[in-house]
């Protein structure tokens, strides 16, 4: 399969923890579907101190994995919201 475009889309979304509403990422998202994964190279601003863990409530919101040979965070359903 093809790797994701490094530059990515121009549109950015803010990703928040669904439990405490703490801001986690600013991410360049393509398309209008649900947020299933975040490619690390498309994250503009990272507000977390530990990977895949909310800095405020310490809830684990994602899993670190390789998707199409590229490092990414696979989101756990219902743990994050985006605006």
What does this structure look like?
With 83 residues, the protein is an all-beta fold. The protein has one domain (12-82). 0% of the residues lie in helices and 41% in strands. The protein is built from no helices and seven strands. The strands form two sheets. A four-stranded antiparallel β-sheet has the order 4-2-1-7, with no helix packed on it. A three-stranded antiparallel β-sheet has the order 3-6-5, with no helix packed on it. The protein is globular. The N and C termini lie far apart (29 Å). The model has no long low-confidence stretch (mean pLDDT 91).
Question: TL;DR?
Answer:
The chain is mainly beta. Helix content is 0%, strand content 41%.
Secondary structural class:
mainly beta
SS elements, strand count? 7
Tally the helices: what do you get? 0
Low-confidence stretches: none
For the biggest sheet, the summary is:
4 strands, antiparallel
Distance between the termini: 29 Å
Strand order within the widest sheet? Answer: 4-2-1-7
The gyration radius over C-alpha positions equals 12 Å
Q: Average pLDDT value?
A: 91
Total domains: 1
Helix and strand succession?
A: EEEEEEE
- The fraction of residues assigned to DSSP E strands is 35-45%
Q: Can you tell me the overall shape?
A: globular
Helical amount: under 10%
